[in-house]
Design brief:
about 550 residues, alpha/beta, Topoisomerase, domain 3, Rossmann fold, Recoverin, domain 1, eight-stranded mixed beta sheet, two-stranded antiparallel ribbon, elongated, GTP-binding, calcium ion binding, nucleotide-binding, phosphoprotein
Amino acid sequence: MFSWVNNEQGGRNKDGEMYQTVTEGLQQLYTKKILPLEETYLFHDFHSPALEAADFQSKPMVLLVGQYSTGKTTFIRYLLEQDFPGMRIGPEPTTDGFIAVMYGENEGVVPGNALVVDPKKPFRKLNAFGNSFLNRLICSQIPNQVLRGISIIDTPGILSGEKQRISRGYDFSEVLRWFGERVDRIILLFDAHKLDISDEFSEAIKAFRGQDDKIRVVLNKADQVDSQQLMRVYGALMWSLGKVINTPEVVRVYLGSFWAKPLRNTENRRLFEAETQDLFKDIQGLPRNAALRKLNDLIKRARLAKVHAYIISYLKKEMPSLFGKEKKKEELILRLPEIYTILQREHHISAGDFPNVVKMQEQLQHYDFSKFPSLKMKLIESVDKMLANKISGLMTMIRDEESKAPPALVSGGAFEGSQDGPFGQGYGEGISAGSDCDDWIVSHDKHKYDEIFYSLNPINGKISGVNAKKEMMSSRLPNTVLGKIWKLADCDKDGMLDDEEFALAQHLIKVKLEGYELPTELPQHLVPPAHRKNEVADILYNHDAD
């Protein structure tokens, strides 16, 4: 799909390394530069398992997370437009495990224990979470067009209370963290009637710390409330999210009803359709951004591996050679926030690059600091050179290759034909209104516009820009918008408007006031009849001239 270099260079970069694809280039950079640093300083024990080939080669993945009965499984059914093996839908907590919905020529289910030994699937490292988790993990395979572009991960519905966390038998938050580091999009689903964020849901969202750019929020079943209630529900949701997602940026929230059933309240239909199309565009573009996403995640991982190496080597350096090791270890764990500050100043590292201090303190309790490795600057320098030189070249090449052969958008299922035909978003509305009619749509209200036109004292059937300006400014639209409307309406470019051009200008003002966008060029169906070219007459004229 992507080539590292062109044929004239013989397929080698300036260091003589051979890469056939960007995916292969990322994999080799990780294996040769980052992995040695991770293995030396026990990175995999503290943070995340080592990456494998399948992690680089897998399709983009979408992770769905939410409380029970918020419509996660129904959302997948809505996108695929077909049932999938293992699917259960109901008002009670039905999905009691993780379901990886992936493409397969033959429909079927792969159990968790078999899934984690498949080298072609990016789930091998999930083996570390044990049988309690693997017994609740399946891969559902179906030959669906949507799944040719993406894979979708369904998760158990989240309940409230301490019992729910204990009875799972595995660390739910850690599993979500593992998926969050590897997926391309994280969708948090909320029900219009379930806005409370339980303790476990709060922990689940916090597990995605550092993955904020991947998170999107869907307020599902929004048709079950009216406009006034929806406004209150949206405000309450943003307030709840603000307490859990500690970022100054506002997370993107999509409103809608994501199932193939009639809307209960149709007053917000246009809003729901626009929001659905925005969400579809976001998901459809995932294959095109997959290479950049993997590159971005690799950079984040490299930065964390460097910081981890500095922390481990500092703890080693501070340990006594003979006596008082346990006492010193306890002291260093208590001083870890202070150590973070020292390392920030010494190595010019941002505070955001450091791991969670409380979690790090808990993990360090189980290790003998005297057995930690000392700082090896060659490993650090190797990663620094990679970040400074190799990554920038890879980014440039991704852009070049994608411009030549961009990956296909996600298609099929609910994505198929969502923009085409009379039920596409905006069809027959705004500027496109009247596009399939024989008569000029402006003529429906022209009698009203003519009254205004003739009150402006036209001379020789036209009004000047000065007179037109006074009337057009009564719309209170900005001058930049009115200037665009003037250019579109002045079809003969004579700086004046006749009755049809003035009616067109009033129609465009009406379209803009209704909330629709203006075109850059006037569509053919809006051109006033007196200004339309007579193609037959033009042909006869050109023939006579010849």
